[in-house]
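Practice record 12: protein with NAI.
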Amino acid sequence: MATVIDKPQTKVARPQVRQTQCFIGGKWVPAVSGKTFETIHPATEEVIAEVAEGDAEDIDAAVAAAREQFDGGEWSKMDARDRGILMYRLADLIEQEADELAALETLDNGKPIRDARGADIPLVIDTLRYYAGWCDKIQGATIPVRGDYFCYTRREPVGVVGQIIPWNFPALMVAWKWGPALAAGCTIVMKPAEQTPLTCLRMARLAQKAGLPDGVINVVPGYGPTAGAALVRHPGVDKIAFTGETTTAKIIQREAVETMKRCTFELGGKSPNIVFADADLDAAVDGAHFGLYFNQGQCCCAGSRLFVEERVHDEFVDRLKAKNHDRKLGDPFDPQTEQGPQVDKAQFDKILKYIGYGKQEGAKLVTGGNRHGDEGYYIEPTLFTGVTDEMKIATDEIFGPVLSVLKFKNVDEIAKRANRTNFGLAAAVWSRDIAKAHKLAAKVRAGTVWINCYDVFDAAAPFGGFKESGIGRELGEAGLQAYTESKTVTVSLS
Ligand code: NAI
Ligand code: MG
């Protein structure tokens, strides 16, 4: 039975911030330098906590703890099924604290409480349970080689993994990273995003309570070019799993080459959302709206290039416009709020800059285009029509509530235009002609294609990018394999 958390009826109280230090080898410690950084509530811009600012020395200590536990600690000796039991226990503890964790996510990230409770935290729990079930099902194969030999493969954990995550789904990214790593038997050093370290630290506390041995999970909050880069360079780390910006991933891949680390990347996108005239337009309008504005537009797979077939274009835009006018922006702790603030000033400024480009390049502004209110990083749901393939708002990842509508004439033209991007994370097709939809799904160069739906995620279904949207897949069995090495054992029988 999937986890369901009751929808709050009234405004949710602000949670207490409890964990703000580094979590290394089972201990809560300040950064060696003694430095801290501020994390803010993006709806009011007020500082909510001072968090330990880890750097290379803290990463050293965390890697040493993870290494020790991996190379000979309890974790490496534990039966696989017992690992699974500990993971289920962690999922149970998160479920018990789901309301508080959701509120902490809303405080740190600014996302509406209805989303944190309705989507993020239930998916966290589901992902951990899904991977808990995998622990004792990681199998090799027997290989029919020539000659008098018995040959088999073992799937072994890749080792100590460095995990670097972004701020858009802070807790969910923790689950996507911890789930397969723990199931495979790896140990972890995680660096959460500097904008949103709090739920990750809280989850580390719950992992400790669940009984995961010291050193299995270590968390070092801090900045990318310092703590993040130290993790990437560290010779004691076997693999880096990264989610974030493509340009950051390119730096990481270059740095990781020195020590030949395995790397998996889940990066940005400019996903085409393609609506044919023969679609169920009610569903398609909802899907186009949700597919872009959900999470303040801060989704790697946001359907930010909305292609609408010419015949229904004007009606479609009118309906989107109405939905944007109805969208409720406000206090993210209010259960009625549908859209909260952007995560920080840098993102807020970037989005407004792109709205400026859209106007300059001649797109037509249909809704929004401005800051909402005078406190917090709110931006009105923005809709541009008359967008052409070359405009910046059609090529670059904006990561905000800015939807670009492009017109198309027919199915022959659309596959080519949909693929005219360096990204390839996701796409969607809306049509009642299911054969047409399947054919187009095969032509689109993207890791995920949704047909007559958007943003449907499941822990069992692999997710990741073609082209500059990533390397490797997360979730599902593919996500687990990325945390294993294959070992071939050949035995002479003569
Ligand atoms: P980012 O890629 O800079 O940050 C993601 C993570 O990487 C953070 O934990 C950060 O501290 C770390 N990091 C940064 N530089 C690093 C380095 N040199 N070595 C190791 N780790 C490093 O993303 P940022 O700046 O927060 O967001 C900028 C843009 O990136 C957004 O506007 C959006 O377009 C895109 N983005 C995409 C995400 C996705 O899910 N695909 C998530 C977050 C951002
Ligand atoms: Mg950055």
